[in-house]
Write a structure and sequence with these properties.
single chain, 116 residues, mainly beta, 7-stranded mixed sheet, 56% strand
Length: 116
């Protein structure tokens, strides 16, 4: 089992920044990719960004150039720096860890609200 604990959500004005952090514990040696998903009310959960153990990143098109994902393999953490936030970024953000055998683990979710 893998446990994921998120922190860093909150309320921010449009154009502002937030940083989400996620710490993994448990059977961490099984983890390949780590990333962030989000789910807005009435919408499906979608990938925001992920990063493999080797450092390969992937971003959802609407966040490219605004969000940056980073990972510290020694500390088993993954962060998401979110800049130039827009109201449409409002959602619950979930940390994800995927093992080499493609088993997914999820954090409890953290609310990000972008509003003036």
């Amino acid at each position: 089992q893998v446990q994921l604990v998120e922190s860093g959500g909150g309320l921010v004005q449009p154009g502002g920044s937030l940083r989400l952090s996620c710490a993994a514990s448990g059977r961490i040696f099984n983890i390949n990719a780590m990333g962030w998903y989000r789910q807005a009310p009435g919408k499906e959960r979608e990938l925001v960004a992920d990063i493999t153990r080797g450092g390969t990143t992937k971003y959802e098109d609407s966040v490219k150039g605004r969000f940056t994902i980073s990972r510290d393999n020694a500390k088993n953490t993954v962060d998401l720096q979110m800049n130039s936030l827009k109201p449409e970024d409002t959602a619950v953000y979930y940390c994800n860890a995927q093992t080499w055998s493609r088993v997914n683990y999820w954090g409890q979710g953290t609310q990000v609200t972008v509003s003036s």
